[in-house]
Structure formats: C-alpha cells, structure tokens
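G.,

No rush on this.
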Amino acid sequence: KVLCFYTGTEEVEEERIIGKEDGFFISWKPQSGDVISYVVDWCEPHQDLFCNLQWKKLGPNTTFSLISSDTFRPGVRYNFRIYGISTKKTAYLLEYKTGYSQELAPLDSPQVAIANLTSRSFAMTWKDYSTESQPGFIQGYRVYLKARARQCHPGFEKVVLSGTIYLFLYSFELLLFRGITKATI
C-alpha cells in the first residue's frame, strides 16, 4: 500500500516531450535519500470521461524509461507523472511531462476580430481556446498583410481593412511544435 502525497502547492513544472514510433522516452533527475523506487503513471484517454490509468514501477537507481503502448494514438495528448516512493511508502510527485506520440495539424483556427482600424494600424484579437484539445502544441501565430495594389494568391480570402490594406485571412498561421516542421491552416 502506497500513500500518494500531492497538495497541489509543490513547484512542479510541466515539461514538453516528443514521442517517437516506439513510445515516449522519459527521464528525470535522480533523488537522494529515502527513495526506494519510482513510479511513472499516465492516462490513456477514452471517449467518455474516464481514462485507463497505466503505471510503471522502476528501481531506485533508474532515472529514465521508455513508455510504450499499442494504444498511443497520433494527435492525442498524454500526461506523465513521475513519483518518488519513500521508505515510508509515500509517493511524492517529482516531475510532470506532457506530449504527443505524433503531433497533427490544428483542428481549427481562432475566430479573429479586427478593431481600432486606422490607415496605419489595427488591433487584432481572438478568444483563448483550449490547447488541451488540440492535436499538437501551438507554438505561435503569424499574420500576413499585403498592399492593395498586389494580387491575392488563389485560395486566399481577402478582407478589406481600409482603402489601402487587405488582410488575407487564409494566410493566418498556427505554428505547431513538431520537431522541425510546422503546420499551416
């Protein structure tokens, strides 16, 4: 029997990890003192609200493990927690890691609103949306502007901001952290 001790006040930062075909390589800092083993747990999400909690117990001299499963799916975010088990059979949360076995392009782009339009500037805003539900990490955004005299490339949607500026909404990009690649929508 192991007691889990986590009050929610510990300073445990989330670290992003990148999965590979054979699973997730997870490593952590060695703990000194009374750690007699480590446990890595993760949840395999299902369609309903429940998840299939999985764990792997490792020895006290181990500081890494390959976590593999036939059920890891592309575009699904997995959260891993690493616990140290003390001699008193108490589990302490040491590290928290999150990643995708394979990142996919975003499902949708934010709904953009333009305000405070002048001949030289404008404000662009959009509502925050859940990054947990996205099939990859959102790294940032790009906005492209083009002078009116230029032609718009086929497939781009023009929105007139003023007499001299068009905003090409189709070229609004969501960049995803996917190794060295990026996805555009």
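When you get to it, here's the other one too:
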Amino acid sequence: MDWANRTSESSAWIKQQFDPILLGSKPNFTIRTTNLRKSIELMFAEVKPPNARSNLVNEDLVALGKMMRATLDKSLNDGVDIVIVICGLHVIGYIGRCYVIDLLYDGIYRLILIGEFRFPEDPTTWETLMNCFQVMATVQDLVNKEATKYQNLIQKNTNQVTPKNVKFRKLMFSSLIKIPYDNFF
C-alpha cells in the first residue's frame, strides 16, 4: 500500500504515451500487487474533507476514474487476457463511495458504484459503522481476488502473448477535446 503523493505507475504509463515528460496522478492511497516482474494497482482512493468545494469533489471522481481506467489499459498491455476489475474509494467528508471499473465490452469502461456508507460523525451515529464494514469487506474481497487472478496470469504468461480483448481498449486523451456543436447537425 502506498500513501499520498506517490505517483500512480499506470497513470504515468498512459500519460507518457502522449508526452514523455508528463507525470502520473497522485492518489491519496494505492493498493498494488507485489510481484517483482510486473505489478498492478488494484485500488485507489481520493479523500476530501467535509468542507470541500463541489468542483474539487467532481474533479477527484474524474481523476479516480482515469487512474482506474489507466490500470485496466496497463494490465492489457501486460498481457492480462481476462476481465479484471479495479476498485476505487471516493471519500467526501463523512460519506464514502466504492466503485469498480471493468472493460467487459468493446470500448465501454463501466464505472459501477458498489456501495456507499457513512462514517460516524458523533457518538450517536456509531450504527453507521456496520454498513462501512460491509462495503469495505466487499472491496477487500474483490481486491484479493483480482490480485490472485493477476498474479496467476502473469506467472503463466511468460511469453507475453497479446490478449484478445486488447482491441477493446480505447485511446485516452491527455486533456479533454472540445467538439463544436455544429458538427452534430
């Protein structure tokens, strides 16, 4: 596990395809596998305090999705030939939301909310902890399963075979591209 201000390897990998001097995003924490040959980031988290402005919260969710997507693309580049999911935790004040992203269909990166919970704000709201534990236990189970799948596949795939579902991957732009409305009519 890596704490804040460490650059995401997969985010850096995808950004450097556009410009070699670009750095990757820096999530608040990351959980990754520990294989010496190849590793994958299986979970990212972005955390904001209760008084954060809504545009910063939205930017964090977009950044979280981009890091998760970059990890999927990097796993395909590493030769992973099965569908894996990457987890994300987005905490805004006392509310936590857990997401997964997959690439099950051609060019469709699905970001799916798998659970939402509330942290206790005062001694009268301790009952909210049970839901927090349930959601986080689900995420822990997913991360463990995906780590096992990834490590087993990397150990078997010593010949670096190109995965069949690599064609599902779509290019990610380093910045948003504005499309004029008059092109639609």
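Residues 53 and 92 are 10 Å apart (CA to CA). The chain has a mean pLDDT of 78.

Enjoy the weekend,
O.
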